[in-house]
Design a protein that fits this description.
The complex is a heterodimer of chains A (158) and B (328). Chain A has two domains: 42 residues, no CATH class; 106 residues, no CATH class. Helix content of chain A is 41%, strand content 20%. The termini of chain A are far apart. Chain B folds into three domains: 138 residues, no CATH class; 108 residues, no CATH class; 36 residues, no CATH class. In chain B, α8 crosses α12. Chain B is built from 17 helices and no strands. In chain B, 63% of the residues lie in helices and 0% in strands. Classes of the chains: A alpha+beta (158), B mainly alpha (328). The interface between A and B is large, with 63 and 71 residues.
Chain lengths: 158, 328
């Protein structure tokens, strides 16, 4: 009886092991992602251009000054990788204007909530703007604060 | 037929050779303990406050119809999860605690990926949690084992070596190998040798300084590397080589000695030069440490301070235990 229990247990473990390997191999072969299985495509594209674009939020203070929310603390729990990609996906949909219009107030509220809870030391803002920035990569990254172009995408002013 | 028999024999030798309960117990304690320390400051509840426009469910959540709960609910879930991580680490109510840690961990760690981008820092943590939840990792180095010995009014003795203590550790090894290998294959598939021999890595290292990552690079050394093309290309070649060849670490002791530390150095390099936060992934390196030999050596050098029973059986089995993987 004990021997039978061990056999069943080992068969179960074997099933789990095969599941891990099969799930992983499937995603690798088909170049798909089924989290937590994945083909792990991060950084797999070869960069050839020195120019790139990135979506970035800017806060607007009461005196009209704009500043980039480039620190992850300003947009937590989002970060500067996930948030721009999320917004980019919205912009790629047919109803992009409605989506961005719905998304920006959430991000404004979150910024102010974090500020009021001392999660960051940014100034109070009266508006939040979304821009698409374009840079030509500088070997010393000396132009981080001075993108070549800035295209306005949307604004929220509660 | 002979091939099948050989394959089955090797499969069983790899996964089911007798292993040390103490080694698995130490892995459990360190894995859940460090995971708790890492996750302690993280608050998942704000994800529940975003409007539906941000919700872009990944396969798992979509298929099972799992929503982003309200912030208060997520807050409660993470309180239970962190308690389960703590109990799993100290080994109290170990089996149910690890099961809860796994199930709630899948939800909490998976939740952010439904908001526009799937990141890959935590998949290995999910696999490791799952393996431990199904294992007998609480049989040693746990309060459960200690209280059981108290009830029996005897000294603490770990169970005899058993296959149950081997497969969970090997599971994490294989999962890590598959992850590294997949990442290497992805680079070769999408970019070919251009990934190595072009200015790709130099541009990548420079671009990462523009505040575009989930974590800021620890240093600006990436800019220096990028200005020396042969260094950047060498690093790219080593990166792809380590990733793609990592599965060799499963089968060759020599490869393991090179590839396992190289993989860790690679992850630290990514964090230092590029930013992405692979700390959780690095926690899983505790499974590569041959704890039975650490215990064995500790016991030999400090025999009077060792807890009675620790490493006793593993010490006896140590020479054969060093490498159970086939191919030697």
């Amino acid at each position: 009886m004990a021997c039978c229990t061990v056999d069943v247990r080992r068969a179960f473990v074997n099933l789990i092991l095969v599941g891990l390997i099969a799930g992983s191999v499937y995603d690798i072969v088909t170049d798909q992602e089924h989290w937590p299985f994945s083909q792990y495509p991060m950084f797999s594209g070869a960069w050839k251009s020195r120019a790139f674009t990135w979506l970035r939020l800017f806060g607007v203070t009461a005196d009209g000054r704009e500043f980039p929310l480039e620190d992850n603390r300003f947009v937590a729990p989002f970060d500067q990788s996930r948030l721009p990609k999320s917004l980019r996906r919205m912009l790629e949909t047919p109803d992009r204007e409605a989506r961005i219009k719905a998304a920006l107030p959430d991000l404004f509220t979150r910024y102010e909530h974090l500020r009021q809870n001392a999660a960051h030391d940014g100034p109070p803002i009266v508006a939040l703007r979304l821009y698409e920035l374009e840079w030509t990569i500088d070997p010393n990254a000396a132009n981080v604060e001075r993108p070549d172009q800035r295209r306005f995408v949307g604004e929220v002013r509660p | 037929m002979k091939f099948v028999t050989l394959a089955v024999t090797r499969w069983n030798a790899f996964w089911f050779a007798p292993g040390s309960a103490a080694a698995l117990g130490i892995c459990r304690a360190l894995f859940f303990g460090t995971l708790l320390l890492w996750q302690w400051p993280h608050d998942f509840s704000p994800w529940g406050a975003y409007s539906a426009v941000f919700w872009m469910p990944i396969w798992l959540f979509d298929t099972l119809g799992i929503p982003a709960f309200a912030p208060e609910v997520i807050s409660s879930i993470q309180a239970v999860w962190k308690t389960a991580l703590f109990l799993s680490a100290i080994g109290l109510f170990t089996r149910p605690a690890m099961t809860v840690a796994f199930v709630l961990g899948v939800y909490l760690m998976g939740l952010p990926h439904n908001f526009g981008q799937t990141q890959h820092f935590d998949t290995l943590v999910v696999f490791a949690s799952g393996a431990l939840a199904l294992s007998r990792a609480g049989d040693a180095c746990s309060l459960d084992a200690w209280t059981a010995s108290l009830r029996q009014r005897g000294p603490v003795h770990w169970p005899a070596d058993d296959w149950e203590y081997t497969w969970p550790i090997r599971f994490v090894w294989v999962a890590m190998a598959l992850i590294f290998c997949a990442a290497g294959i992805s680079k070769l598939r999408h970019s070919g040798l251009d990934w190595i021999f072009s200015d790709n890595l130099a541009l990548l290292l420079q671009r990462q300084q523009y505040h575009i990552s989930d974590g800021e690079p620890w240093t600006r050394w990436g800019l220096w590397v990028a200005q020396h093309p042969w260094i950047a290309r060498s690093m790219a070649a080593v990166s792809v080589g380590v990733e793609t060849l990592f599965p060799l670490a499963l089968f060759s002791r020599t490869a393991r000695k090179i590839l396992v530390p190289a993989g860790l150095a690679f992850l630290i390099g990514i964090r230092a030069l590029m930013g992405p936060t692979f700390e959780q992934f690095m926690l899983c390196y505790v499974f590569w440490v041959p704890w039975q030999h650490v215990l064995y050596k500790t016991r030999l050098s400090v025999p009077h301070t060792a807890v009675r029973g620790v490493g006793e059986r593993s010490a006896a089995a140590a020479p054969a235990d060093i490498d159970l993987a086939p191919g030697h």
